[in-house]
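[Q] Does anyone have a clean structure-token version of this?
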Amino acid sequence: MARPFEISVPDAQLHRLQQRLITATFPDELDDAEWDMGVPLEEMKKLVTYWRDTFNWRQKEQELNERLNQFLVPITVTGFGGLDVHCLHHTSRNPNAIPLLFIHGCRPD
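[A] Here you go.
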């Protein structure tokens, strides 16, 4: 039976993330790499600065929990045993909408 779920990242994990953002080091930029070799260094630095100085995870966590109907559904998978599958339920305003199923994986810890 499905049971309600809310996102709740432990404070210790957010603290570890903040420490990693504070101590992040970057490699030298490759000449003319652009996006061909991944995210350009300057873009990555902007992202790290934003996450370190501006982004508020607790605010986003609250918004997600308020906006999304989230559930954990227990299933049994041969070779793995019991697993909880994270599900969102959202009903479309369009009566002819095609149902969608998005499946994702993540570490349980």
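[Q] Thanks! Anything notable?
[A] The CA atoms of residues 83 and 102 lie 17 Å apart.
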